[in-house]
Amino acid sequence: MLLVNSTIKETREQIAEWKNQGLTIGFVPTMGALHIGHMSLVKEAKKACDKVVVSVFVNPTQFGPNEDFECYPRTLDSDKKICSENGVDMIFAPSAKEMYPSLCDSSETTYNKSESLTSKYLTTVKPPENFTNKLCGKSRLGHFDGVATVVVKLLNIIQPDKAFFGQKDAQQLAIIKQFTHDLNIPVDIIPCPIKREPDGLACSSRNKYLTQESRQKATSIYRLLKKVKELHDKGVNNINEVSEIAINELHPDISLEYLEFLNADSMQNQVKLSKNTLVALAVKLDNVRLIDNIVV
Ligand code: AMP
Hints:
Bound molecules: adenosine monophosphate
Order of helices and strands: EHEHEHEHHHHHEHEHHHEEE
Largest sheet: 6 strands, parallel
Oligomer: single chain
Radius of gyration: 19 Å
């Protein structure tokens, strides 16, 4: 039976009860609008742990002032259904006030979204610059401080044995591995492969924003990445040459924010395509920002 908790207290009590019974806890943090990509993480968690907890929290501190925090899809009823069908044991779905009391008005559950307020009142986890000054970190200033802070909070609340994160958010995954190591947080971080639609588009909650026409154009994103892999397999490893050829695969209505080649673990820029090179991109079409990557 699926339990749904919105308070930290209830959640901690339930986790303590499971731990007293000697059960292991697997944790899948999400922002909701759950899809088969999220459920692939749940599947891994169920294989590895006795109890699986999914958090559903659209974390305000990781959204920039002009990003889609307000209109990010919130679909708790269907999230409950999909979790229940996939054998999740508990959803932790807190309010912004439960997570950030110091950032919310005393009588309100609404989050007061101001950067100065956050830096004034909230302890923030700041991941190393080497990991944040590239890829999405370049255009989403402060995004990974918000991610790291909420993930540390969630790990402290749930205290899981293992936490599962998608390779889809490769920079996020590398950062989480790094700060859990740096801060000695006792959890195993388990990376999970990218789940794709049959036509190759990576599953994402933001795919819901796409019109049917854009959805079709979006299939060219994975074609670009596959072209990089194909060139690598043929022995072409000059990054400028590879980029130039592969970018031609992208539909002309899609604008490329970045296409970067990094070492998948250290996040250092690569001069040549080689084994364990993370090829990551962000694009915009119809004002929807999508990310994807492959490791060659
Ligand atoms: P989100 O709700 O977008 O914050 O994602 C929650 C978790 O699910 C993150 O660890 C993501 O990397 C992961 N995730 C999202 N989409 C996919 C996907 N298509 N395949 C694998 N993992 C995913």
